[in-house]
Amino acid sequence: MRLHTDSLQSRALERNKKESALPNAAMGISSGWKKRHECTIRQHMKCIAKSALWEKQAIGLAGGLLVIAFSGFAQPKPGDVVFQTGFEGADTLRTWGAEQIQNVRLAPGFQSAQSLRVEKQANTAATVSVHVPLPIDQMRGARLTCRAMVSADGVTPPPQPWNGIKFMLHVNTPSGALWPQQNNLSGTFDWKRVQFKTVIPADATSAELVLGLEAVNGRAQFDDIKITVAHGPRMRPATPPAGPVFTGHAEPRLRGAMISPDITPESLRVLGLEWNANLIRWQLIRYGPSAQIKTAADYDAWLEGALSKLDAALPLCEKYGVRVVLDLHSPFGGTPTVSGYVGTDTGLFTNRAAQDKFVADWERMARRYCDSPVIWGYDLANEPVEEEVAEGCDDWQALATRAARAVRAADKRHAIIVEPTPWGGPEALESLEPLPVPGVVYSVHMYLPHQFTHQGVQGGETGIAYPGMIGGRLWDKAALRRALQPVRDWQRDYGVQIYLGEFSAIRWAPNDSAHRYLKDCIELFEEFGWDWSYHAFREWSGWSVEHSEDKGDAGPSKTQTSREKLLREWYGKNVKALK
Fold first, then answer.
1. CA distance 407 to 416
2. Cis, peptide link before residue 536, omega less than 30° from 0
3. pLDDT value at residue 152
């Protein structure tokens, strides 16, 4: 989460798309993504399930639609083709259910005779889309690479980054819907490759591919779509490792908060001394003018300035018994997000020079702080997103390993903290393998369900209570436990420490809902033995436990909120090993 401008879109929708559903019609035009059509999906999936009874072979559907390698529902493995189409064949439109849709037609393709063209004019339905079911049994637990050739003509700027040209998956899980895609597709451009990666949860119930235009006007064409398995499901070790778990600290538990790098000495005193927190997560984050930095030299100058702020704060942190996580929110090569800060995405995975600099920057920071008694660990990258990995570049697993080795060569002492891609969510950890480097702690962020935790942030629905029915399902403490179970399993399988680096709920959730949500989350973290940091202390008022539930009241509450009382009660249990 970010300073002042963090939003529902950057957390929930920019990450997984809003937890809503696709149009009522299985294929066609809709005014939005509001009505579910799970019955249609179930019917399609029954057909695919029957097909899977065949022995290993290629299955071709009408219109050159689909190529799937089946083997009695064998585990997905790298290189498996889940879906492929070039839109060839006379019955392509029928295959996609688009024969009666005037806005969807065939047109000359990318180095081929045919592609799918979707057009939307002003004053028509908000969304024009077609979609086709995918074989979920060949996808569960796998990380997929989704590629397509796309061209566009006059596609208007989308109102939100997740609107625009839709090359997207819709995945249903017991915890809600996921909408992985590449954001910010609009304008006019010739054929180019569009690509994103996504992890399919092991408990996913159905999936489909969506092509179209949402909340924009213009014309887009799609060709040469291919969905392949990049990594198969995680292979769980037969026997969990024995021996002590590395934590990197002497305290029984670290409990604290994420802070702004502009925090004042007085606020550090309040958090560390009055509230008794023993951990802060310090952001190295670019926003505003620094978000526009393009050159390595300018980035180095910015980074030195950011580290100088930390240097000035470290003596105070030591005085108040507060350990520090150094969090690289904005590496060189990242791009500005909807919230205005620079994230861990795009250029970091398409530019080898940026990756080399990422490793070198971490080696430099590790050497700088290797003797610090205050630093707990180095959080290599905040919420990495590898939508596209260019040829010659590392994916996050390989890049994190390179950076961790560089850190460990420079600093034998402090913890190395690694978040999974995409977005550091609980389900994403399933696609990460333990790094072959000693002294690593693994971290996730918890904002599920996003529809509740981010309600009313820069628009969107409000009045959503917890516990209760949220996004069509009951969310309570048991549901939170289920959502965190992949992390618990990973922790047990590999004998590692888990750090819950961010969690929160917007303060104006109704009827003290944010307090109840935070209480349930913290009780689970404590049960599981995880270190944790709340998002955030004196950063943006929306996440502030010192502000009331009244969204219109921008000032701190005159009385202590139940959320502040909750955090201070848990901080009161802290041990200060630095003192």
1. 8
2. yes
3. 97
Look at residues 183, 180, 162, 161 and name the one whose alpha carbon lies nearest to residue 171: 180
Q: Enumerate the β-bridge partners of residue 144.
A: 198, 229
Where the chain has pLDDT below 70, the residues are 1-73, 338, 579
Q: Residue 20 CB: number of other CB atoms within 10 A?
A: 18
On the 0-12 / 13-18 / 19+ scale of CB atoms within 10 A, 470 is buried
Separation CA 406–CA 398 (nearest Å): 13
pLDDT of 56 reads: 30
Q: What is the pLDDT of residue 51?
A: 33
Strand partners, 228: 81, 145
Residue 287 and residue 293: Cα distance in Å, rounded?
10
Residues 188 and 271 in one domain: no
The secondary structure of 199-244, three-state, reads ECCCCCCEEEEEEEEECCCEEEEEEEEEEEEEECCCCCCCCCCCCC
In tens, the pLDDT along 69-125 reads: 444 457 888 899 999 999 998 888 888 888 878 899 999 999 999 999 999 988 777
Start-to-end CA distance of the chain, whole Å, equals 30
Locate 51 and state its tokens. 């097909």
pLDDT at 534: 98
How far is it, in rounded angstroms, from Cα 181 to Cα 210? 10
3-state secondary structure of 399: helix
Identify the pLDDT of residue 87: 94
**Domain match, 200 and 271 both:** no
pTM over 0.85: no
CATH number at residue 436: 3.20.20.80
Determine the length of the chain.
Answer: 579
- Structural domain for 368, as ranges: 255-571
Domain count, the chain: 2
**Token representation of residue 331:** 């590496």
